[in-house]
Amino acid sequence: MKRVFFSTLMAAALAGSCQSQPTLTVNIANPLDADRADETVEVSWSVVQERLGAVTPQEVAVLSPQGDRLLSQVLYRGQTEPQAVIFQVSVPAKGSATCAIARGEAVDAPASGYKVAARLVPERKDDFAWENNRIAYRMYGMALMPIDGPSNGIDVWCKRTEALVMDRWYAAELAGKASYHRDNGEGMDGYKVGRTLGCGAMAPYVGGQLVLGNNFVRSKVLDLGAIRASFELIYAPLDVAGTSVVEVRRISLDVNSQLNCISEMFVNGGDMEVAAGIVLKNNKAPADVANADPAYKPLLAPDKGYVTYAEQADVLKSDTTNNGVIYTAVIFPHGMSNAKLEGKHLLAVGSYRANEAFTYYSGAGWSKATAGEGALRFPTEKAWQDYVAAEALKLQNPLEVSFK
């Protein structure tokens, strides 16, 4: 967890100033018998104002249990007024931590120091790309459809650097200097989406059939700061069992996480089944269940709320490098009605309620990604599955936050 430390004198001065002003104490309890590191805590802006009064985002400081000021970010969610403040904290198994929110100078990183990014990439046929210090993703805009056809799945860019890479990778690719389909030391795009849901996108699942949409038509960045990047994608109307439905995706990615939080709305869709899918592969290409690579067996755990898959990363025809294994997953924290292998997908099936957002998580890891000191973050498929199982349990048992 990134912290900004001050001298003992500065910490004492800050603590003294907080004691003389209103302070919101935030108690954070971990109900699980497992340590939780670098987990994001969110506090509503209305709660902050209720205790501190009228404050600006720049006047809100978050203090750790040790009294150090923590990196924090004010969320706007696409609005003009603040909606919440977030920060990251570590809490031991069955333990708790007490932080404070007080008037003071907020600790934020300059934009050049952010570990998350998200933007429309008009120079590359209207891709929308986003990343953090571990992984990167993208989805496809309308300008690409005449060239590659429709595809509203999620693409994966594997990384083995904490640095943000997407701007440099795009620039090098478009200038013809280096291909992001080849690992040049920082990672690569070794994932094929095609006409599928890719790495965990969602679609209506009506009458046992996926109803795949086309590329997004509008995008909007909702938040971009030191901890979280979030954005919204809107799709053209889609015929779902005779009804014109508009899909709206809101996606956020926090620093230190492999997983996207995805909130799906199917406007005018009514109650229906939906499915988030992971594309099955064989020899770099999407494959039907019967023809999928037998070396990689999907893990279906609907009772635990998740599914996982692994596949050999793509290699350019002119490249003989072993690009490792890409791991993928979908988590439904609020319950999965079914999981199945069907067509070209491993599907996680759930129930969508009209006019309500369906929130779930999907993401990826890479066997060549490092975790400091050169150690591999996910050296085996089992390591990835353990990570997903632990994250699912955390999402099903969120940190318990109370105030005084």
Q: Could you provide a short overview of the structure?
A:
The chain is mainly beta. The protein contains 5 helices and 29 strands.
Question: What does this protein look like?
Answer:
The protein is mainly β and 404 residues long. It has two domains: 8-108, Golgi alpha-mannosidase II (Immunoglobulin-like, Sandwich); 113-396, Beta-galactosidase, Chain A, domain 5 (Distorted Sandwich). It has five helices and 29 strands. It has helices spanning 8-19, 45-52, 145-148, 166-174, 381-396, and strands at 23-29, 36-44, 60-63, 69-70, 72-75, 84-91, 96-103, 117-121, 127-131, 135-139, 155-159, 187-188, 199-206, 209-210, 216-224, 228-235, 238-240, 243-254, 259-267, 272-279, 281-282, 285-286, 299-301, 306-312, 325-331, 338-342, 345-352, 358-366, 400-403. The strands form six sheets. Strands 15, 16, 17, 18, 19, 23, 24, 25 and 28 form a nine-stranded antiparallel sheet that branches. The protein has a five-stranded antiparallel sheet with strand order 4-3-7-1-29. Strands 8-9-10-11-12 form a five-stranded antiparallel sheet, with no helix packed on it. The longest helix is centred in the C-terminal third of the chain and has 16 residues, at 381-396.
